[in-house]
Amino acid sequence: METESSALQAMSGQEKIIAQGNTLVKLENNTQMAISVQRPRKEADILSASLKELELYPSMAREALYVKPVGKDDTGTMKSVEGLSIRAAESIANRWTNSAYGCELVSEDDESALIAGVFLDYENNTRHVVQARVSKFYKKRNGQVVQHTPDRFDTVIKANQSKVLREVILRSLPAGLKKEYENKVRRILKADSITNIRNSLMERIETLNISVELIEACRGKAIKDMKKEELTEIVGLTNAIRDGEVSINEAFPVKKAGTEQEKSNLTIKDTPVGSTTTDAGAKEGGKLV
After folding, report:
1. Based on the structure, what is the number of domains in the chain?
2. Calpha distance 252→219 (Å, rounded)
3. Quick check: 282 pLDDT over 90?
4. What is the rounded average pLDDT of the residues 169-188?
5. Quick check: 183 pLDDT over 50?
6. Same domain for 75 and 210?
7. How far, in Å, CA of 119 to CA of 129, rounded?
8. Range of the domain at 33
9. What span, in angstroms and rounded, lies between the C-alpha atoms of 90 and 162?
10. Could you tell me where the beta strands, DSSP code E, fall in 202-250?
11. For residues 183 and 143, what is the distance between their CA atoms, to the nearest angstrom?
């Protein structure tokens, strides 16, 4: 103990802060693991509470799924993937007791920033880590590569943190829990009225500053003429835009913009340059420190 005290005194001010911070984190982890032994989670209660939330707040179902275009197939048809949004992931994770999650800025240089999302399960004594390198540059539609302004880059970082958090949370939660939650979401959406879905979509696109004309040009029909399934899909696309999964132009591509008005409806697509996402611990289990 005396040796540790002497070592601490020999450190600089910054080193002391780091060392003390590490000690506090280790103490907190040990405390949380001790609590998890005394109060183990009840998965049946967590599932029931998660589904009950959707019953109490059915509008949450329209926030829970995202739709993300992934490219065209051999026939030229656009394909998409669907999944639970960051809102849904956080909602379930907040009920998954004896755990913690977060996303931090690990490092930054002139070219990019490294962020990491971490999910700690104190009861199972495991962790998952997902890292992403976020470029400070993006490519304009004309091919020019430019650097984000500082305030714009802050927004880019926040969007990427949401993506990393969603990924690390969903990789850490039980597959059965996620599936039951998603099934409940889809049942609620199926029972919802087309009027509610259409009104929700109109509110969403106004909040995200997406033009009605752009969506209708992409889909080739007026929103008022769209069926329920198509409206639900577009709500999922707007969720993906909100969460930073895709840009507006990626979600609603328009082949041609022949008039100045059509051109003004298009949003410049920011294509990140050199950004990568890596799973630093999706299969990493073991002792927490």
Report:
1. 2
2. 8
3. no
4. 97
5. yes
6. yes
7. 7
8. 2-37
9. 10
10. none
11. 42
